[in-house]
């Protein structure tokens, strides 16, 4: 049933939607739909243009499980939402995919940051990733109306409607758990992203620029895997007097980052191998931190009231 208000705008008398069996129900039943900054950033870029009443109804739909399905494809999101009519409404969200040339620019910027690959594999979106895309003259998150087009088969004249609002909110929750969905919507899946980043990263380190050379030296000193054994050996013997070398041990910025960066080994069918390596990796790191801490404490104790010559006299023979 339809009525007209005083402003001559059509509106639809609200009714209870048909119940859904096993619908996609929001994990958040109150408050914010997102926890991580990248998911919140995605939602805010879209929901700020939405009618308040439709957004409120969209939240109710999302939390009641009225969304039947959501399918994310490169440049496209397809969904179905059960409304007040027997047949579910169909939603279509088209997002502008980056061109091959645009992705090349973006990946070159991403490859210049050593931690990006490890953080993404750890399920985290690097805090300054927007700056990398901006340096490539791109917006990772939708910025203009031309970045996406939304439609729904419902009779509501306003877009986004409450059905699209429910889909966008649940999509934000999905982004919370898998930031790679943001790249999928822009045209690259997880495997494509990581493969391209590894290749770009290798090309960056082999480029011979001053920044790359400085980073290669730091990588070699920290024991990272970006350099070959021969390269690390050559750099080691060029470091000069071993007594002058200061060894610093710190916990990794990304837990098990090296293992996550390398992925599952192709030479083993043992699915638990990575878990076993992770356990060893953790124990070695913990032991290294303990040894470094003990050495640091002993060095501080030796500095109190004694100079370097006095300390050398007290060293045990042999």
The number of E-state strands comes to: 6
Rg calc: 27 Å
Could you say which overall geometry the principal axes of the C-alpha atoms support? elongated
Q: Number of DSSP helices? A: 13
| Portion of residues within helices | 40-55%
**Biggest pleated-sheet summary:** 4 strands, antiparallel
Strand order of the largest sheet: 3-4-5-6
First-residue to last-residue Cα separation: 97 Å
Series of H and E elements: EEHHEEEHHHEHHHHHHHH
User: What is the overall pLDDT average?
Assistant: 74
Describe this structure in words.
The chain is an alpha+beta fold. The chain has three domains: 12-195, no CATH class; 208-242, no CATH class; 265-303. The chain has 13 helices and six strands. It has helices at residues 37-47, 52-64, 100-111, 116-121, 129-135, 162-177, 180-185, 190-205, 210-222, 229-237, 257-262, 273-303, 308-313, and strands spanning 2-4, 10-12, 67-73, 76-81, 89-95, 148-152. Strands 3-4-5-6 form a four-stranded antiparallel sheet. Strand 1 and strand 2 (10-12) form a beta hairpin. Helix 1 (37-47) packs antiparallel against helix 6 (162-177). 22% of the residues are buried. Residues 1-11, 217-225, 235-249 and 306-318 have low confidence and may be disordered.
